[in-house]
Amino acid sequence: MDAVILAGGLGTRLKPFTDIIPKPLLPLGEKSLMEIQIEHLKKCGFNNIYIAVNYKSDYIKAFFGDGSKYGVNIYYSEEEKPLGTAGPLKLLEKKLLDPFLVINGDILTNFDLRKIYEFSLNYPESPLTLGTKIITTPFRFGKIYSEGDIVKDIEEKPELKFEILAGIYIMKPKIFEYIPYNEYFGIDLLIKKLLSKNIQVTKYIINDYWIDIGVVEDYSKAKELYENMKNN
């Protein structure tokens, strides 16, 4: 099976770490984030891995090579200019001829990625399946319930629940019809484009361990969580 790792971002929210090395090579214990991703992809049956690179791409290519030391085939797709999260996929149109997985290069998870892949095959008409995650965010104010001027109840610091994009997708080759060539184009815009054309988009809720290493605080948390996940 084929997978694409989106690793072309500048990692600006993780400065100063990313001034020196690209975000996918940031260490979590004795391994880098992308090493952990690649090993997990292999475990889940994804043996052909395309890495979409841009910022400090030479570092990434030198580090991972052809993937033989990880038991997978690694190929590189290098942007000449930033193309967003969906734009780089268009460069792989002639290579990705079967359903394929796309994962952001800053996602750490132990979710069995075969599950979302197999789920997507149940919807042959849907060119895109979104991995989603329910997150709970504490609200720091008390919420008032009232009718006119009369207070009826109060809820102290309620928790807010949101279903978010988890940075994991399954796409079918038909998706390329909706991605412009050599233009900056995000997956958010791709989703809206499909919905505007009444094209079916499906979702799969991920209940397993998952973290987006987007900012310094999340990176520090991920290092701790990864060590705990490894030891359990």
UniProtKB/TrEMBL annotation:
Domain Nucleotidyl transferase residues, every copy: 3-227
Annotated protein name in UniProt: Nucleoside-diphosphate-sugar pyrophosphorylase family protein
Domain of life: Bacteria
One Pfam family of this chain: NTP_transferase
InterPro entries associated with the record: Mannose-1P_guanyltransferase, NTP_transferase_dom, Nucleotide-diphossugar_trans
Lineage summary: Bacteria, Thermotogati, Thermotogota, Thermotogae, Petrotogales
